[in-house]
Amino acid sequence: MYLGIDTSAYTTSAAVVDDVPACLWEKRQLLEVPLGDYGQAQSKSFFQHTVSLPSVLAEMPSEYWPRLKGIGVSVSPRSVEGSYMPVFRAGVSLARVLAQALAIPLMETSHQEGHIMAGLWSAGLWPEGLQSEEPETERQASEGSQLKGLGTKRGRSIERTEESSAAGRFLAFHISGGTTEILRVTSDTEGGWGTEIIGNTQDLHAGQFVDRVGVSLGLPFPAGPYLAELSAKGSRDAETLLPSSVKKGVVSFSGVESAAQRLIAQKTVPPDVARAVEGCCLRSFAKMIEYAIDETGLDRVLMIGGVAANEFLRARLPARVARGCFYWAQERWSSDNACGTALMALRRLRTREKFRMADDIEALSEDLKEYMENGQ
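Above: the chain's sequence. Below: its structure in token form.
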């Protein structure tokens, strides 16, 4: 078994997975943000993590502790030099103590790698890897079915490019309150994921855009699920009330957020404002994905992050991108969670063991060769 710990900006998470891999247990606790606030300072979130993480771990079944083989923990937002957020130190500190006390390996990873891992796993794409089977139905694919290799490309057969069919290379679109990045993802030699940003935001993240408008509409923070529920009551024509601004894969939500606030001030009915926000996100994301496909030649797109749980986007985005094959993290595993972190520990430890076995085989081969030469 493998324990994962993730202390992100607004969620304390822990999870346990086994070698299957299946998630045996997981617990998440949203941090408290006062009603009407758009968020809170890192120092306040850090303090809440130090209080909530021990209580979260106390709910883990006691029989799991002696069976743990390793611990995974998110140490930074991204797996690049200089990526840092204080909130992750709360999880790292406790994870290091636990690993030392239990005498098991500690695998440090990034929050983004955890999202990628949870997305691949919940879409049925790991541990088997990205498959090339055709989708059964568009409905099953858009819901992020557990069937391996299931994708959707406007309900048609999927033509694979040579590059996109290469093992371990794909696009990932990470959209949340703290990230709006479309990435070229490659598997590295240590069991992690190498990422290169192809498109991002020049100001607000998608989740920030949603939260700011949602809070102005009187919705709780984080506003995503509540705004989606409100949007379902809006008119279809409202989808185009807000523009979208994307240039060479870079989106801007700042001006659009101001336009949404003007709609609210003009007494536009809240469901139509909510639908306008979703419509803006839909068109913006489609432009970013089209750009990334053009730039990389990769057509497989893994959708991850809290915003990717939005049902409107899941239903409508594949139809707007003619060349994309979409794989969606299941809604439960789109938002911040520690299951992906635990899976990263499993993946890294498996990779380490694989290289150790390869070294042993090479050493044995050299010994055998020497023995045969001396024998002759």
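The chain has two domains: 2-115+342-360, 129-328.
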